[in-house]
Amino acid sequence: MSEKSIDQATLKMLSKAKADNVSLAWDRLAAQEPQCGFGQLGVCCRNCNMGPCRVDPFGDGPSEGVCGATADTIVARNLVRAIAAGAASHSDHGRGIASTLYASAKGHAPDYPVKDEVKLKALAKEFGIAVEDRTSQEIALEVAETVLDEFGTRKGSLQFVNRVPLKRKEIWDKLGITPRGIDREVVECMHRTHIGVDNDYVSLILQGMRTALSDGWGGSIVATEISDILFGTPQPIKGSCNLGVLQADQVNIILHGHEPTLSDILVHAARAPELLAAAKEKGASGINVCGMCCTGNEILMRHGVPLAGNFLQQELAIVTGAVEAMVVDIQCIMPSLPQVAACYHTKVISTSPKAKFPGAEHIPFDEHNAMEVAEKIVLAAVENFSNRRPERVNIPSDRMDYMAGFSVEAILSALGGSLDPLLNAIKSGAIKGIVGVVGCNNPKYKHDQSHINFVNELIKNNVLVVATGCAAIACGKYGLLLPEAAKNAGDGLRAVCEALKIPPVLHMGSCVDISRIMTVAAAIANALGVDISDLPLAGAAPEWMSEKAVSIGTYVVSSGIFTILGTVPPVLGSKNVAELLTSGAEGVVGAVFAVEEDPVAAADLAVKHIEKKRLALGLEP
Ligand code: XCC
Ligand code: SF4
């Protein structure tokens, strides 16, 4: 058991699942083993019905598919399709939020007033939209229309790319990878990877980069910016996390998925006096709404809502036997949940027309009558409280406090209004550099271990860590998001954290909020008059598994930031593709990927990279 996770709550629930005879992701992984070697290398293709084909990268079997596609073509096509899927996911999420702003501005979504007018106006100005003598509704309407236009823009390039330094834009323009329209890039990926279109691995990967950039500087950034406008820009906030946040005497509702549209409203719905009274009537002392995965990050950043756990804990939350409803929207929701829930009393409630789950109850959510639907969902959970079977309940006591909510605006205000204190700390070497640690969990690797060991090594070496997604949740569970964690940091970083009263690991939000990290990187580069690739920065996804992570890694590298992957991507079947990603890209976009499964060695790579960049900037390494 202990080889599966470093997290005590997780280990306890793994034992309970075994006793309760519930099968989990780890069991299903064991049933898959050995996993397909061709798949692991990325050399199988099902893109047409002359196949499926697989080529043998070792030269013993066929070296081409029926159409003549080589390992290079097949591996690159598969990678590009993964990027397209990841970019589409983030971007469609962004579209959803932008559509909500549009509906709100049109007066059709009364439960979604603009919460951050300052940010609305700032974004309007960035887009050249007039703000003087206009109501916030008028501004919101034009902002929403402009942002929605980015999905199919005919203007030649996305507007948010204007945030990057000129040097970066020139690199993209020269390579022809400046993203045009968000949807257009995804569509072009699907077109190019159809049989008999783009067969050149270099050309394919360049399109993959352009698509990923349309996510990082398009769909994801839209999701972040518009969420801030609608739900409020996060500010430092405290709360607690891990499965111990579930309450034995309350109705427990877990919100799992990604879009704040549902979760933000549901947090408010659960405070309605009638619903609290209904809960009391059922014998519960209250209604406890908790988050999970990225929608959890969204509401913890804005409301300090307790966070039940990260990706590999979704099934385990149900195994506690104490969850009345697991309410899900989109992305990273295991289709196994209804099956796990069948062993307990938990209701799995799906809400998005895009994401249905056999065995789950579907309560369609839409922005036009949001509060009404949210109350209906909470009531369903409350009514389910009497079905709880006390003999099946076991909530692990493990929980940890966190401080989260470090939006760009919050970081600036912690710094006293300007980036200077941070720049000075970097120049003096008190902070050597910054590493963004992001991404998922993956049952092929010990849960949370790589995240924590990697981050601990970095802070010891005076590297400030910014984290999002399930990586940030992992950090939360081990106390790394508390200002006190600075005591484990190197002297320089510790002093900075103590002076600013911030943790050495800044929780910057959900996965779409990696756009916040990119915005900070661009702002630092602009302030220093250099390119992003000149900065002492790195990115890492120590336990990634999703296609979204592939898109993220690719836009981070394409933006000029060295990125370390902790789980091996399926590209090793093509030496050329692997070589391009891990070395050739340096001369093209000024950054590469590295793959390192050992988190301590990975931290060493990051630190060495940062030292190299410092030296090149004329700073003490
Ligand atoms: Fe999903 Fe965003 Fe990965 Fe977590 S980190 S498993 S993508 S929830 Ni984005
Ligand atoms: Fe095989 Fe080519 Fe068809 Fe892929 S596109 S399945 S390699 S014939």
UniProtKB/TrEMBL annotation:
Homodimer. [4Fe-4S] cluster 2 binds at C45, C48, C53, C67. Keywords: 4Fe-4S, Iron, Iron-sulfur, Metal-binding, Nickel, Oxidoreductase. It is an enzyme of class 1 (oxidoreductase). [4Fe-4S] cluster 1 binds at C36, C44. It comes from the Bacteria. It comes from Desulfofarcimen acetoxidans (strain ATCC 49208 / DSM 771 / KCTC 5769 / VKM B-1644 / 5575) (Desulfotomaculum acetoxidans). Its EC number is 1.2.7.4. It holds the Pfam family Prismane. GO terms for biological process: generation of precursor metabolites and energy; response to hydrogen peroxide. Its cofactor is [4Fe-4S] cluster. This is anaerobic carbon-monoxide dehydrogenase. Belongs to the Ni-containing carbon monoxide dehydrogenase family. One of its GO terms (molecular function) is 4 iron, 4 sulfur cluster binding. InterPro entries: CO_DH_a-bundle (IPR016101), CODH (IPR010047), HCP/CODH (IPR004137), Prismane-like_a/b-sand (IPR016099), Prismane-like_sf (IPR011254). [Ni-4Fe-4S] cluster binds at H258, C294, C332, C440, C470, C511. It catalyses: CO + 2 oxidized [2Fe-2S]-[ferredoxin] + H2O = 2 reduced [2Fe-2S]-[ferredoxin] + CO2 + 2 H(+).
